[in-house]
Amino acid sequence: MRKGAFGFELWFYGIIALFCVWIEQPLLLACITGFVMFLERDDWLNHQMLSIFCFLILFLVLREGIITIFSVSSIMPGIDISVANSLKTLTYFVLDIIKFVIVIMSYGKMKNGKSVEFPIASAIIRKIYT
After folding, report:
1. Which residues of the chain, if any, have pLDDT below 70?
2. In this structure, are residues 36 and 45 in contact, taking their beta carbons and an 8 Å threshold?
3. Nearest Cα to 125, choosing from 16, 66, 39, 45?
4. Entry pTM
5. How far is CA 96 from CA 23, 24, 33, 43, 92, in A?
6. pLDDT digits (tens, 9 = 90+) for 96-116
7. How far apart (Å, rounded) are the C-alpha atoms in residues 57 and 84?
8. How many Cβ atoms from other residues are within 10 Å of residue 90's Cβ?
């Protein structure tokens, strides 16, 4: 695998980015993505970092949208608050499990130097980046 300007192998930055996705730190991921884009200047790595960043943003927006729907439904008449809260908690759990599986699968691909493809995020980045 190729090494970057600072002596790290290029997949190392992707692994750090995936860790930021796992702990849900979009600001830290944005800083790392900016660092990689401006200082490493590798097209493959730039595409990977932008895809990972876009995946995290889309995941957070989707999750908060779903949780907002459950929060609004909890104040509607006829819906028990404990049921709405249970559904909200179950949704958090399921989405976190899905995110964890995606991150672990992406870790294996990134470690082997293969491109990480997220369903929606990669398509968005491909349209913007090319």
Report:
1. 1, 73-76, 78-80, 130
2. yes
3. 45
4. 0.86
5. 10, 10, 23, 30, 6
6. 999 999 999 999 888 887 888
7. 25
8. 11
